[in-house]
TrEMBL record:
InterPro entries: GH43_arabinanases, Glyco_hydro_43, Glyco_hydro_43_endo_a_Ara-ase, Glyco_hydro_beta-prop_sf
Region Disordered, annotated ranges: 1-30
Superkingdom per UniProt: Bacteria
A GO term, aspect molecular function: arabinan endo-1,5-alpha-L-arabinosidase activity
Lineage: Bacteria, Bacillati, Actinomycetota, Actinomycetes, Kitasatosporales
Name of the protein this chain belongs to: Arabinan endo-1,5-alpha-L-arabinosidase
Length: 353
């Protein structure tokens, strides 16, 4: 969710996921995966490698999901038992669950009672959670802030089950103030192959930042307090936020949401990506333009009724990588809805389908 100084922000709903299906067909709304693959086989490899969506029609519709699908800034994980847990912006972090990544039901918030320190940031609700499973427990980073300011904080909660009401808050991880040139919201934890933990975050101001995290505490590593810049825009209001980092085939990929969210059918959100050979960048798009210099290859953009896709995260599931996001439904007064698509990495770049 954007926290630009000139944009208001409604509560964000949770994001649901879909059941792994060997054919993956349900993720393509009204389109057969087999026919999509057949069509791709007819495209010369050089053209496929150069393919970048450039028009609205180039982007897929979200896969079919049902039930409690009104969400904003969803994060989702699959438990060892095959259950999907989804948390999202709003209240004490709103919750959805699914057994098949298609049909979702709602439950209680992550926090039955709000941590007292939230009120120092002028809020009683949390934004943009990021759930993962590390060292035998669930971790959830999240943000609290005040609309139109960067008086913000990233918090951390832990749980043995990941279920609502089971979370123990560990307090603040990183903060920003009105005098900061960054905004401490929209956190994402990335654990590298070498065991190092990294937290990316940021919204507007001077863009996306990254810090080292101590695996023993889940908070900033005391021996490395550098704050690195990994993406920004060249002109105000520097509309980039909601980072998410993954590593695939030897490259690090940074997904981010660009432009404006939270304005219903007037939202201009879109998802872009860049890649790097180092976790701290520089991240560059397909054309070699750095994400610190307005770079970014499109992954999802508005088309038809599906307006302003963003607030994304990536779920690595049994049938591949799934991009989970919200969009604003143009057929329902701009209500934020859960979007889910699989990603194809065969070109070396993520392509939603």
């Amino acid at each position: 969710m954007s926290r630009t100084p000139c944009t208001s922000h409604p509560s964000r709903p949770t994001r649901p996921s879909r059941t792994p299906r060997p054919s993956r067909t349900p993720l393509l709304s009204g389109t057969s995966l087999r026919s999509r693959r057949a069509a791709l086989l007819c495209v010369p490899a050089a053209i496929l490698l150069a393919l970048t969506p450039s028009t609205a029609s180039a982007y897929p519709d979200p896969g079919t999901v049902t039930g409690a699908t009104v969400v904003h800034d969803p994060t989702m994980i699959r438990t060892s038992g095959g259950r999907y847990l989804l948390y999202a912006t709003g209240g004490g972090l709103s919750y959805r669950t699914s057994t098949d990544r298609r049909t979702y039901s709602a439950g209680g918030d992550a926090f039955a009672g709000r941590p007292g320190w939230w009120s120092s940031y002028g809020t009683t609700e949390a934004w943009a959670p990021d759930i993962s499973y590390q060292g035998g427990k669930y971790l959830m980073y999240y943000a609290v802030s005040t609309f139109r300011t960067n008086r913000s904080a990233i918090g951390l909660a832990v749980s043995s089950t990941g279920l609502p009401g089971s979370w123990t808050d560990r307090g603040t991880v990183y903060t920003s103030t009105a005098s900061s040139d960054y905004n401490a919201i929209d956190p994402n934890l990335f654990v590298d192959d070498d065991g190092k933990w990294w937290l990316s975050f940021g919204s507007f101001w001077t863009g996306i930042k990254m810090i080292r995290i101590d695996p023993s505490t889940g908070k900033q590593l005391s021996s490395d307090t550098a704050r690195r810049s990994i993406a920004t825009r060249s002109t105000a209001p520097n509309a980039v936020e909601a980072p998410f980092v993954v590593k695939r085939n030897g490259f690090y990929y940074l997904f981010a949401s660009y432009d404006t969210c939270c304005a219903g059918v007037n939202s201009t959100y879109k998802v872009k990506v860049g890649r790097a050979t180092s976790v701290t960048g520089p991240y560059r798009d397909r054309n070699g333009v750095a994400m610190t210099d307005d770079g970014g290859t499109p992954v999802l953009e508005s088309h038809g009724r599906y307006i302003g896709p963003g607030g994304q995260s990536i779920l690595h599931d049994t049938d591949g990588d799934v991009i989970v996001y919200h969009y604003y439904d143009g057929n329902n007064n701009g209500t934020p809805r859960l979007g889910v698509n699989l990603l194809d990495w065969s070109s070396g770049w993520p392509v939603a389908f």
